[in-house]
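Batch manifest, entry 17 of 40.
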Amino acid sequence: MSTDVLTQELQQGFDCVYEKPDTLTDTRFHYCPGCGHGVAHRILMETIQELGIAEQTVGVAPVGCSVFAYHYMNIDMQEAAHGRACAVATGVKRVLPDRYVFTYQGDGDLAAIGTAETIHAVNRGENILIVFINNAIYGMTGGQMAPTTLAKMVTSTTPYGRETDWIGFPLKMTDLVAHLPGAYYVTRQAVHTPNAVRKAKKAIRNAFEYQKLNKGTCFVEIVSNCPSGWKMNPSDSNKWLEENMLPFYPLGDLKVPEKA
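Output type: structure tokens
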């Protein structure tokens, strides 16, 4: 019996539980086991397909683990230099105002190298979506301390933990952004549980819907884990995220549009 025939017979009588969206390529994810990037990619691309806007969407990703997005996102993508995704997205949106434009950035990129671009893009109210993956570390380059690294958190450059008296405090970018007048919708979500994934996907959908209104910047933070950078297995990293990351970076909406 051929493989195709066997597959068809096995599928008979079973409902389809999940089907990969066309907005994801056939390339196998090569993120570290347990990494939240793959889930974030999936719900982002599912939303774009469900909204029927794949042909009208442009994504911008810079350097870091987010750079792999070009391998997986089957839409128009534009590369940006490290930290410059918001600046590039601003240019794309102003030249092509009818497009849906989003950035996909990590915390080392958005909250360190790209702090100025992020703050000023939001303050101007650029009509883009910023997707911010926060795992409190530089994941790609060796697990160094990032601006979002928690106090006392051990990294490759803070082997005894982050000392706030001389290194400074963790930067809550989403809280800062929420105070800017150009921010229209600001929320913090996660992808470490099925319920969290559903809420994160709803937030992304809201952000794309709001972009139609041309009211300002939408900002979706996704608190994620980094098993390799944190030197943990995936299960322990999710537990550590719940016990340490979420108390400091609580989930929920920080700024929502006022009802008419």
